[in-house]
Write a sequence for this structure.
């Protein structure tokens, strides 16, 4: 069954790395598929530009070199990829890739099954990939029906940030820690994590880079906020770790010295209560998970935190697989229940697919800075 | 029961950090205790100078500044600790610490129990700490009786190196890897690990720093040896990782770029067989455990190995606790059975307690370099 107004084709944003060392953004006309019995077609109306999307969108290209040619559906934006970075792009060379991990929209066509037809006209969210598309055909199990009265913009960020924030708390518990540290803590994700920890009564040490970010989090009830630009940062962080007992951290920056500093301060906090000299340092395991790469430079640390430590990558999808379908479903249900409160996201601007390609917009959302998160509305003209 | 020749006191090596920024090595006269029923007194005749012992012996002191004063039992060696390093010594300040993790000797006195008396005159090994002592009183459960005909020098290194090498293989298996990488691979420990892997048919990638170290390992049957001083090191290592499928490494150096290079080459090896582009890199977990600190400088890496990676400290004692008493006992039994073959250690020199204090000896064994491992014989005049 198809709603008559459904267009035969729709635009889809594409990112392509060319062997000559250029990245090209364009809009491809993609025919709208006839949904199989267990599928629906969603008219996407809201999809966030998350750091993980921006990573795929621009690859290793230098966004300062972005140039737009043409207009409307035939617009193409080209940017340069530094020669030394081409090696890391080898695996995606020549592949025109759709982008957009998650989003929400209205079901405008449904396959020939009761379950599919039941969704017609409903607003659903999905972690489907290729969500920067006007029409996206999805399996029923990919669709998360949103409660009556939820707008697509309110459900656009149902998955990545909420499940990542919940995943951090879940990982903390599963690995036997009682409180946690978060960096880049004034981000949408960080604010969400702060609300979760307040709700659950969990100690959270928020690390930010600027005084106004600290003020923002404090205004939202955060108890422990450490500003890495402060002269007393190391002492502040150590004290917050003593106060909370946090021995696990989630770091969005990746590069630089922060991850190592956190381990060093954890060790200092643990040693404040140590009773005798241990030449291998504290025996309590200290862990930092790097889940982002806001600082793309090298990671560096002095091993001044004994031998009981770990550092490693953390990624949402393997985490969800590890905890199993049932527990993952419970986390999703919590997100839906708190979509307008705990898990609410905010955006500084809503843009169309064509506007995603505009250099003046790229210069803003491409920074991945706090307060510049954009929402893409592929159905916007 | 006490053997008549047992002296009322014996010398014990001590290391002391003074608040003024000096480290002092001396020989203390310690009265030989009367063993409790479940204890024996061992006349220590052989105890290795392992890197972990050297770490405690010298702390953060600069061995190039070592100065000896006095002679015989009243000799004292003093060395300077750089001001910036005193912070890391805070917890051991003013404590005169005995040294020597492990060693072997002859039971010369026994407590009043059948089990203790049965050991009289026998050669035993122990991981007792304070083994740079002429007489060491030990609990029965700390003593590992050596097979008839084993000299103390042959049993001196029963624990630290053999159990660390076996622990690496055990950790590899428990964490689901099928082959492993080892750095500083020409060390006594590295040669032992090579023999274990040959025995067990496990793929081992040996990383060394010099051509003669590579030649040494190859002469001992090592199949994969990569010399980090070679211009083709990165390619050699990647190929060895492809050939063995190793995705876990044990690194003795700690500082510098090597740990990160290993992860980067593991990722490159995994991607050689990858079928499609994954923006988060290979999904196979890659792990480096840092178990030593031959390079005391900062650890630095570029995160060019996806998100499925971990780095962390690895230490023998927590490992043995984790695997439980039964499995630990099985590992020890394997060591005893192979003491003169797989688990044989070699030393470049045997020195007395007084000689441990001599600057000209410190200059050699203090390097912790391949081929300069010393054996301490506290019973040597």
């Amino acid at each position: 069954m198809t709603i008559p107004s459904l267009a035969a084709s729709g635009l889809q944003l594409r990112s392509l790395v060319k062997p000559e060392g250029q990245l090209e953004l364009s809009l491809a006309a993609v025919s709208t598929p006839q949904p199989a019995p267990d599928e629906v077609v969603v008219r996407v109306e809201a999809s966030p530009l998350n750091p993980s999307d921006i990573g795929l969108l621009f690859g290793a290209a230098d966004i300062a070199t972005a140039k737009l040619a043409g207009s409307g559906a035939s617009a193409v934006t080209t940017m340069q990829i530094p020669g030394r970075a081409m090696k890391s792009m080898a695996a995606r060379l020549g592949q025109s890739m759709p982008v957009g991990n998650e989003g929400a929209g209205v079901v405008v066509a449904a396959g020939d099954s009761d379950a599919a037809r039941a969704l017609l006209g409903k607003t659903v969210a999905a972690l489907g990939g290729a969500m920067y598309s006007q029409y996206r055909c999805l399996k029923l199990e990919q669709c998360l029906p949103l409660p009556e009265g939820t707008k697509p913009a309110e459900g656009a960020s149902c998955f990545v940030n909420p499940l990542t924030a919940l995943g951090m708390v879940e990982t903390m518990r599963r690995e036997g820690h009682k409180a946690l540290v978060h960096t880049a803590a004034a981000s949408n994700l960080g604010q969400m994590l702060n609300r979760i920890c307040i709700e659950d009564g969990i100690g959270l040490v928020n690390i930010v880079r600027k005084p106004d970010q600290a003020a923002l989090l404090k205004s939202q009830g955060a108890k422990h906020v450490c500003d890495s630009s402060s002269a007393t940062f190391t002492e502040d962080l150590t004290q917050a770790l003593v106060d909370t007992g946090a021995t696990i951290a989630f770091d969005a920056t990746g590069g630089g010295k922060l991850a190592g500093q956190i381990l060093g301060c954890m060790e200092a906090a643990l040693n404040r209560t140590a009773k005798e000299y241990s030449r291998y340092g504290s025996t309590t395991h200290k862990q930092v998970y790097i889940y982002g790469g806001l600082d793309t430079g090298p990671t560096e640390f002095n091993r001044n935190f004994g031998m009981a430590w770990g550092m490693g990558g953390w990624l949402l999808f393997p985490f969800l697989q590890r905890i199993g379908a049932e527990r993952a479903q419970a986390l999703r249900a919590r997100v839906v229940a708190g979509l307008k409160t705990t898990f609410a996201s905010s955006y500084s601007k809503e843009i169309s697919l064509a506007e995603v390609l505009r250099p003046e917009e790229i210069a803003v959302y491409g920074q991945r800075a706090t307060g510049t998160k954009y929402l893409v509305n592929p159905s916007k003209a």
